[in-house]
Structure prediction request, 290 residues.
Amino acid sequence: MTALLPAPARDLDLLAAEIKREIGLGDAALVRGLLHYRRAGVRLAEARQAIPHGGWLPWLETHGIPRTTAWRYEQLAGLDEAECSTLEHLRDALEVLADRRREAKGPPAAPEMAFFEEVRPTTWVEKNSGCEEWYTPAVYVEAAREVMGCIDLDPASSEVAQRTVQAMTFYTKELDGLSLDWAGNVYCNPPYSRVIDRFVDKLVAHYLAGEVEQAVVLTNNATDTQWFQRLAASASAICFPAGRVKFLDPDGVEGAPLQGQAVTYLGDRQEAFAKRFAGFGLVLSNRHRP
Prediction:
């Protein structure tokens, strides 16, 4: 076998120049793409205002525009073209908009942030450790992603959690996800404290309004609570894992939850959810959902 000889230095220099040129062209294409997406968002916002109440989603469907796509591009309409030219990715643009909304709102009041802090338990199902920084094992996140196709939003998250979830947009406790818009395909592992009902109510409201297309929610199987009943009433299917989900703390150490969990699905891919999550435990379908 003939040994491969290193290429001459001048050839490597030429190759490096070509690589840098292609990277530059790619960056420019991304910027142009954001500008076009922003312009589409401006026109989407114009169309939404002109369409009578209740006709927005049917109009999108008639013209083959996915709801999630429309929502993303409408968000970009909040940026001017000069700002778009400084960004390279859609995620960067959405994060800029989230920061802007947070700054406009100002620092959240203490009660708004209380859901990420330790709370005094009032019932047995609330007797958790008091730590809200518990992360979903990757196997459940990947199953949710497979069912929904992608994860557009994680509204109760952190930088650490996003190593696994990898949502297009995510809200941290500093951004206060309860005060921001939710749309598209949502994955949510909400804080397991008394504020969980606010996450559930917000998710259900956005889902029934057609703004959230699909959602996978991981909670305690607190079937005796009102918030769980409200969530289940809007669900397409619910999986009750055969064992307790071993959540991970920020150091990757498995926790020991005091009760079992439920994975609730909202959306039109009921059969796909049932098939994918059957390996975790019992899956029940809701034939009477809205």
In short: Residues 111-285 form a domain with the Rossmann fold fold (CATH 3.40.50). The chain is about 45% helix and 10% strand. Residues 9-50 form the longest helix (42 residues).
